[in-house]
Amino acid sequence: MSHYYLLNKHVLEVLPRNLDNLTILDVGCGRGEWGFLLRAKKKGSPHLIGVDIWRPHLENLCGTMVYSGLIMADAPHLPLKDRCVDISLACEILEHLAKDAGYKLLRELERVSRKTIIVSTPLNWPQGKIYGNPYERHISEWSVQDLTCLGYNVNIVSATHLPRAARIVNGVRRFLFRLPRNPQIILAYKMLES
Are 78 and 49 in contact (CB under 8 A)? Predict the structure, then answer.
């Protein structure tokens, strides 16, 4: 799934105000939306590492200087050392993996992370290939229980609580991108022991 802006506020609230000297992993970095957002909305200069499987995304990000490093890898197979990042983001990624690969990714995030893991995935949101990217297809569906059983704090982010102007913009976006009428996204985070 491409970046869904409704998550921005909620993800930013989970993250510390100042990201200085933190290493943040962005799995499925795509076009770099989270990297750009973190640089624009948070204080400090984090070391951002972007991981994606689709080469065109990484090639487009090379000249932006948003990420400190970019890695081409399959999400469940992170080529990183144990506990080498402070915070891991895997927003809108789980649905692109088979369920067993998604669970493997969650274990990998626990292996490489020291402080916090943040993941998100849509509820009841089928999607095929978009932007010419074969990896954008949704192939699994996740529930709140799937993540709470693993110790994640879970919230449902919905477009139904938006102000009127934002609902209109969301309606146009929904029409253009063939999104569900009332999209809902699971936002889950886990604080790890240091």
Answer: no
Average pLDDT for 84-89: 98
pLDDT number for residue 134: 66
Name the token pair of 135.
């990896």
CA distance 162 to 172: 14
Band (1; pLDDT cuts 50, 70, 90): very low
CA distance 76 to 105: 4
**pTM for the structure as a whole:** 0.85
H-state helical runs in 31-163? 33-41, 55-62, 99-112, 144-148
| Spatial distance between the Cα atoms of 117 and 140, rounded to a whole number of angstroms | 20
Q: In this structure, what are the phi and psi dihedrals at residue 75, rounded to the nearest 5 degrees? A: -50, -45
Domains of the chain, CATH where assigned: 5-158+186-191 (3.40.50.150)
